[in-house]
Design brief:
Radius of gyration: 18 Å
Strand content: 5-15%
Shape: globular
Largest sheet: 7 strands, mixed
Strand order of the largest sheet: 1-7-6-5-4-3-2
Distance between the termini: 32 Å
Order of helices and strands: EEHHHHEHEHEHEE
Structural class: alpha/beta
C-alpha cells in the first residue's frame, strides 16, 4: 500500500492579495503599489477563500527524498549517496538514470490519483526541482521529469483534481535539506545573484507554460521552505523573491493582464506575526496564499 505524505500547505490560511513584478535582488526595495493599475480580476482555478483545500503532497516522486524512498538510496550500496545530487554524482550515469526512470514510471500512477480523488480530496501538490529545467552549471542531476509533470496534469484533468506545482529545490539550496536536492550545513541560494536569477527564470517559465491550464494548475509555490531560521540574510532575500515571484506568476503574459494562477508562499519558518502587512490587499495584492 502506498502512503502519501501530507503537508501543512493544505491547512494554509488564504489571504486576498495581488500585483507587480520586482526584478531587483535588493530585499530592501519597496513594493510598487497597484492602485493605479487597471484590474482585470481573473477567475481562479479553484474558489480559494470559500472552499476548503483538501489535498496531499506527492513527495518523493519527481524530487527524491531518502525518508520517503529509502530503498533507492540503500540499494546503491554507497553511504555517500544522501540526496539527489549525490545520487547522480556517485553512480554511473546509465545506472542512475535507469533507476530514476523506473521510479518515475511506477511511484505515482493514474490509479494513485484516482484513489486520492475517491478519498474526497481536491488538490495535489507536486514538488519538482530546478534541475528539471536547468543544469547549465554542470550539476550532476538527471533530467526527464517534465513529461511526468505533464502526464500528472492530464490525469488530474481527467479526474477533476487541482494541482499546485511546487519548486522544491533551487540552485545552491534554500534550506540545506536533502529534499532540496543537495544536503548541506548552510544553504547558498540566497548568497549568489546567479542562483536567484536562474530561479526567477524557472518561475517565469512555469507561469507562462501553465497560465492557460488553470483548470488544473491552480497555483505555483515558487520556493519550498526557505530556511528563515538562519536569520535576516535569507529572510530579506526571500521577501524580495516573493515579490519577484508575484510578478512572474500573477502577470505571466509580460503585460498588465493578470493570470489566474495563485502564488503560494512559505512562511520561511517564521510565525504568522512576522508576515503581518506583507503584500497587503490595500496595496492591490491578490491571489497569494501563505
Amino acid at each position: 500500500m502506498k502512503m502519501w505524505n501530507t503537508h501543512s500547505l493544505f491547512t494554509a490560511a488564504v489571504a486576498a492579495f495581488g500585483i507587480l513584478s520586482f526584478t531587483s535582488l535588493q530585499a530592501s526595495a519597496a513594493p510598487i503599489e497597484a492602485a493605479n493599475l487597471t484590474k482585470r480580476a481573473p477567475t481562479w482555478g479553484f474558489p480559494y477563500g470559500s472552499t476548503k483545500i483538501r489535498g496531499v503532497n506527492l513527495g518523493g516522486w519527481l524530487v527524491l527524498e531518502p525518508w520517503i524512498t529509502p530503498s533507492l538510496f540503500d540499494g546503491t550500496g554507497n553511504s555517500a549517496i544522501i540526496d539527489e545530487w549525490t545520487f547522480g554524482q556517485y553512480q554511473n550515469y546509465n545506472t542512475a538514470h535507469s533507476k530514476l526512470v523506473n521510479h518515475w514510471n511506477t511511484f505515482i500512477t493514474y490509479n494513485d490519483l484516482a484513489a486520492i480523488k475517491a478519498a474526497g480530496l481536491n488538490h495535489v501538490r507536486l514538488p519538482i526541482g530546478y534541475w528539471a529545467w536547468d543544469i547549465s552549471r554542470g550539476e550532476p542531476y538527471h533530467q526527464g521529469q517534465l513529461p511526468y509533470l505533464n502526464q500528472a496534469i492530464s490525469w488530474c484533468r481527467t479526474l477533476g483534481l487541482k494541482m499546485i506545482i511546487d519548486l522544491h529545490g533551487v540552485p545552491g539550496s534554500q534550506n540545506g535539506f536533502d529534499n532540496s536536492g543537495q544536503k548541506m550545513n548552510y544553504p547558498l541560494w540566497h548568497t549568489n545573484s546567479d542562483n536567484i536569477a536562474r530561479t526567477n527564470q524557472i518561475i517565469k517559465t512555469l507561469a507562462s507554460t501553465y497560465s492557460s491550464q488553470t483548470d488544473v494548475v491552480a497555483g505555483i509555490a515558487p520556493l519550498n521552505e526557505p530556511a528563515g531560521f538562519f536569520g535576516n540574510d535569507i529572510l530579506a532575500t526571500t521577501r524580495q523573491y516573493w515579490y519577484d515571484s508575484y510578478g512572474n506568476i500573477r502577470y505571466p503574459y509580460g503585460t498588465s493582464q493578470q493570470g489566474a494562477i495563485v502564488e503560494f508562499i512559505s512562511d520561511a519558518f517564521q510565525p504568522l506575526s512576522y508576515w503581518n502587512n506583507f503584500m497587503p490587499w490595500q496595496n492591490g495584492f491578490e491571489g497569494v496564499i501563505i
